[in-house]
Amino acid sequence: MTDRADADAHLVERYLAGDVQAFNELMAAHENRVFGICLRMLRDREAALDATQETFITVFRKADRFAGRSAFSTWLYRVAVNTSYDVARRTQRRRTDPLPEHTDPADPGSDDEFGSVEMRSDIEEALAGLPSEFRAAVVLSDVEGLALHTVSEILGVPVGTVKSRVFRGRRILAEKLGNLREGSDSLRDEHHA
Amino acid sequence: MHEHDADLVAALAEGALSPEDTRAAEAAISGCPRCTADHTAQRTAVVAMRSLAGARLGDTERTGLRAAVADAINLDLEAAPKTPTRRRARRAVPWPSVAVAALSVLAVVAIVPLVGTLTTSGSDDEAATAELALTTIVTDTAAAAAAEAAPIEGGEESTAQRGDDGALSADAAASPSTLAVSAVPEAGESTLERVADTDLRALLEDPTALLAIAEPPPGPCDAVADTFFTGLDGVLVGQLPEFGAVGYFTTGDGSSVDRIVVVDPDTCEILSSLG
User: Fold this and answer.
1) What is the pLDDT of residues B218-227, one digit of tens each?
2) Would you say A136 and A41 are in contact if contact means Cβ atoms under 8 Å apart?
3) How many CB atoms lie within 10 A of CB A79?
4) Burial of B167 (0-12, 13-18, 19+ CB in 10 A)
């Protein structure tokens, strides 16, 4: 187990023993990533907040059933993905609402090519257009940077399936981004003409 | 590279290869148009997805999220100790018992003229007799109040086991979070503990400080005082920093307090009363 996994296991034990501070530490360690997963799965900040809340409520209510066979985070992210599916089904929200532009700063390590607000919106739109099983694999692997075997555990599918979904999902994304960019280029040309 | 190796293309796009392996992979795909096209697409998507990394909750969102989760699992965040100390649950106020106590104390008012007044002056014998009568009744009512309070305080565990829909759920019942009891006040519920009768009487043994700062209303909870005293004529109001509360009271001879009601200045709930 990693240091993080060990620390989480210890925190869960403390929480089970009634330590309120352990709750805060578990939240602090995972709330941003859980929110990130939900946000990229749902593309709506309010819905993502709802899903994040439901995820943590579920996990803390069932913490006594956490057997520790896998990392706490793996279990937590699995609940986050499944909750996002549920929230999406319940709300039947059309994923066309633009995200607030000021909220999510770009990863400093990412290429400038996609750093603009306009491009980020295009990327989010492209991601939202992926079939949900591809989207989950791509979000966990490429957005959240989780290892393939971890994504495999979270999604409950073989590593080979994860690889396939990620590969095919990226291919679709590239096509969508190309089309979106061509579309916006032609619109820009028309505007300047 | 004549065969399409998706894993290699993906690894190259992710930047997961060593410099040496990267050079070898780039050389290999250069002779495979399909591989090159795939690599371009994969790399484009990887870079785009990484630009979405790092989503963060805003401060307000974080605070709201933690509070909502804690509330749903009946966890008292404010009880998180800065240093390991025993958690202190908010004591439930047995309002029915308080009412009984108040009525009993009112009975004291009828008795007091027979044995003396609640005063800082007068003979020691008279004061002692009055104190004895008051102590006897108040102690009895306090004991009764405590007896009635016990199931209420014990009942917090049952309350804590309820889910967010208010019904007992197997999950909630099994949850360790039920070890902690919510201390979040409900709407209109006082955040202050009930002021002990003994503490209040101790304060009134020397009301000089209270009288010095007392002023006529308006105070923060005039309506409560109006009800308690049946009118605000002659009523004074003063801060009780010892309790974080406000006291409305009337004076006997100007140097003593004969009736007082202590209220939470935020919720105007009665924390204690005497006289």
Assistant:
1) 888 888 888 8
2) yes
3) 20
4) exposed
- The answer to whether A56 and B77 are in contact (CB under 8 A) is no
Q: From CA B98, how far away is CA B228, in angstroms rounded?
A: 14
Cβ–Cβ of A127/B62 closer than 8 Å?
A: no
The whole-angstrom separation of Cα B9 and Cα A170 is 12
Cα maximum dimension of chain A:
69
Tell me the C-alpha distance between B120 and B98, whole Å: 26
Chain A residues inside the 8 Å CB shell of B42 = 167, 170-171, 174
Of B185, B63, B91, B73, the C-alpha closest to A18 is B73
Count of H-run helices and E-run strands, chain B: 10, 4
Interface check B89 vs A, CB under 8 A: no
Extract long-range pairs of B18-26: CB within 8 Å, 24+ residues apart. Answer: none
The answer to whether the Cβ–Cβ distance between B53 and A23 falls below 8 Å is no
CA angle B213, B200, B190 (to 5 degrees): 90
Quick check: helix, strand or coil at residue B247?
strand
> What is the interface pTM, i.e. ipTM, of the complex?
0.83
The pTM of the whole model exceeds 0.90: no
Q: Which of A14, A19, A20 to mutate to test the interface with B (most CBs of B within 10 A)?
A: A20
Q: Does B57 touch chain A (CB under 8 A)?
A: yes
pLDDT per residue as tens digits for the range B136-184: 333 333 333 333 333 333 332 232 332 333 332 333 333 333 222 223 3
Half-sphere exposure for A171 (CA within 13 Å, toward CB): 15
